[in-house]
Task: structure prediction
Amino acid sequence: MRIAIVGGGYVGLVSGACLAAHGHEIVIVESDPNKVKLINQGNCPIFEAGLPELLTKTVGKSLKATDRIEDAIAVSEASFIAVGTPFDGDSIDLTQIEQAARDIGGALKNSSSYHLVVVKSTVVPGTTDNTVATLLEQTSGKKLGVDFGLGMNPEFLKEGTAVEDFMTPDRIVLGGNDTKAQDKLAQIYDCFANTDKVRVNNTTAEMIKYASNSLLATLISFSNEIGNLCKALPDTDVTSVLAGVCLDKRLSPIMPSGERITPEITSYLAAGCGFGGSCFPKDVNALRKFSAQHGVGSTVLDAVIDTNKKQPEQFVQLLNESMPDLTGKTVAILGLAFKPGTDDTRESPAISVIQQLLNTNAKLVVYDPIVDSLPPEIASSEISMAKNLKDATSQADAVLLVTAWEEFHGLADVLNAQNKQPLVVDGRRMLNPADFDQYRGIGLGPRTQNDKPDGNVASAA
Ligand code: UDX
Result:
């Protein structure tokens, strides 16, 4: 099918490239001329595994980019809205959604055939059927359900594994204003024959996305709260506690063969220095505000955000307890990205960690395997960027591990090779405490730390 995708950002570009690889003819509509140029040259404007290869395969064949929305809509049977919906602290900012709806409506004015408009951006329940529908009707002069259909198809891809997530989806939510719209949307996803499809109205589709992200964020804050309690108890390690919890067969089912399955969702049951990224903080906050607007309490989600805000402080407290005076000390911070596998630093816990260390008279050295410049919130002359793990740790009195990059598993070897034994504070519980002379970890009780535990935990294996 010929499809226009309005917005060449993370969701739009990945969805476009994947649908193009599945044989659809995709035009990405992007207002940034530089991005349009890059895409049409087959160059990937973002860091995302598998995407450059996909662009090489599809650009010039089934994928192209343009800044001319009218031309793109004129040749398309369907269009996706995949623009940003930033949270401004009070509600999600619909400026880009509204503009996209107006532009698509304007382009549909002279169209004589049925066109399906699909909202892919994350929007609060009701936005598609109210704001988007109204703008489309006003600007096109056409009638919803007669001349055009309106769908809602949330995206569940994760940064770092976005291409894989799109290509092997766990579910496809087919929201639509009526059966005709749902059928047309289903046709686009015919190429995913074996994937569970959820046919719902648009409001339900919007709600599924928010509820999904809120559940995952809740698991993380729950784990962090349990971890903070473990830290206050002697000889108690949150890693062992949560490993024991995860062996509940409702979380890790035992197959008739006796083999145990460890579903991916259990990875969110892990204590750390908090969640970040472009989705969880924004979506949970937007849902809280939305609940309040409807006079409905959001006690659980309020606590999820509260715990998450405080988590980087819990992490820095481990450093402060072991090294109360940071004057003249060198502190290495490992990781700037909000999680491994991405160069995205939005809402990264590393920002909050570093902000707490500014003005402590410590010398700060930051290293991230992919991110090579400081996020704007902490751009400061007090911080230097190291080029590799060795440089980052060569002078360090303390090393703070914030992002769980695979490379950091090699920290003990790097330190040993330099004959260094700084204090290591593990914000992701990915290191073996026994490998270090001085080790502090999130969710690890006091005596356990003195005893230098060997890091063995209950295991599903
Ligand atoms: C998330 C959802 O997973 C995805 O379905 C949705 O489409 C967008 O939001 P993303 O933000 O890319 O995706 O990342 P995700 O891997 O889910 O991680 C989000 C946050 O949770 C990160 O800060 C990450 O560090 C944290 N996290 C993730 C944990 O703390 N523990 C985990 O086990 C996994």
In short: The longest helix spans residues 202-231. Confidence is low (pLDDT under 50) at residues 450-461. The two ends are 46 Å apart (CA to CA).
